[in-house]
Amino acid sequence: MTTEDRKPSSLAPSALEEVEQDNTAPPPLFTNGTTYDLSDPLMWTWKKKHLALIAMCYMAFMTNFLAGYGVPMIIPQAKEWKLSPADSTRSLSGNTSAQGFGSLIAVPFAQRFGILPVMFWSTFITFFMTIASALCPDDWIGFIAIRVIQGLFATAAQVLGMTVIQDIFFFEEHARKLGIWGWSILIGPYFGPFLASFIMTTQKWRTAFWIVSPFSGIGMVFIIFLMDETTFDRINSSNNPPRPETYWKYKVQTLSGIYGYRAKGKPTLLQGCLEIWTVFSKPQFYTLFFYHGATYMWSVGINGSLILFLVPPPPKGYGFKSIDIGLIYFAPMVGVVLGELWGHFFNDFIQARSIRKNKGLFEPESRLWALYFSTVFTAIGLGLLGIGLEDLWTWGIIALLWGTYIWSLMISTVAISAYALDCFPDNSAAASALLNFTRVLHGFLVPFFQNKWANAVGANWSFGTQAIACVVAFGIIPIVQKCGKRWREKTTQGPDLTIVTRAKGQP
Which GO molecular function annotations are given, in alphabetical order (predicted)? Predict the structure, then answer.
């Protein structure tokens, strides 16, 4: 690819020092907090940006919160419907698998009609499916169907969060905001069982769903009043539809999708679907598809099946009661919080170091150095967790190892999401949907065989094999770092280089 054909991307953080401009490089696009259109979401106030981020992260949290909320209900539902505990987990697997397909469906509609209407309608349906879970008659097939529909629509916030962050925040803010968004995704599946475990001590499982229904309603209120449409055409401003005169007319049009439908230059639904395939077919994505799935999938399995290790009385298990199960979920939640705090500074350090080393040019592959660190603790956490469950180590050590594994996942998830955003800045929704699909595709299968596998060979060997799989999958990362730049130069999906400093003489 010639110099003239390259697509540079630049958003210049004021904290970085000025460098001499390289006249052989393509000219950077300097924003530095200034655009020519005040309606550009990049020009929103700090308050408006972070209120939108709160609304998005709340619903991203609710997606996995609602999925994990059903974990403590496995045993009572199995007794009510005369099922085995393993069969009772089908509603969890169905909800989780539907999230993956829902993420792929959400992207074309968001690209055609806008972010806000997809968020609103998906939250609206999620709210009523949560109520339907409480109203479900004595029919476990019907309950599974309701949970599948709930997962199908609830996943929109997880998919569109990366695009919203790109739309309203500058480059130097991306990794930090992706950390907050990743935190909301990863803490949800553990806070759900934590809360449900306490509710289930005094209430039946249907009542537990009634209690949690207003949580989804709050999300709908957040979407209506805190969010705004973030889609904006910066290249051709004439494609942006005129804003209605009144606040409520504008709100109705953006929430319904009318405003986005009137926008020009939008891809069709078919083009949106083809864009997903285009992103997936690029080596800088499908290589990470393998690594991310192989490391993340076991967290889904642990969340859905760990209860089957904890509930049986000694010597087969720990004899945990409902409150005990709730308390142990503190471990992964603490892991997520510490992972966010660590990543907040660690990813900034890697980013700034890469920029200084390359004299103002940012190499996206530098973000993957975080995976060298995280993979070590992923393997240690998984391997020792299996040994601990097999030998019935004290529950405190089990909690520590589980938290360590989730802490490492938080670090790797943010690094991979940031790398995907750097490689596909114009296709962030498609990249995010595929990352979510990666997690779900690999993860929803694990509860089907996790318990049977551990019973057949022992928890030490099953979890140990999982740890080895993570290490083997890591072998792809040095290849991505070595070949990533060449791969990016061969595609028009993203920039060959990102210029993040102001040259001397630039305003």
Answer: transmembrane transporter activity
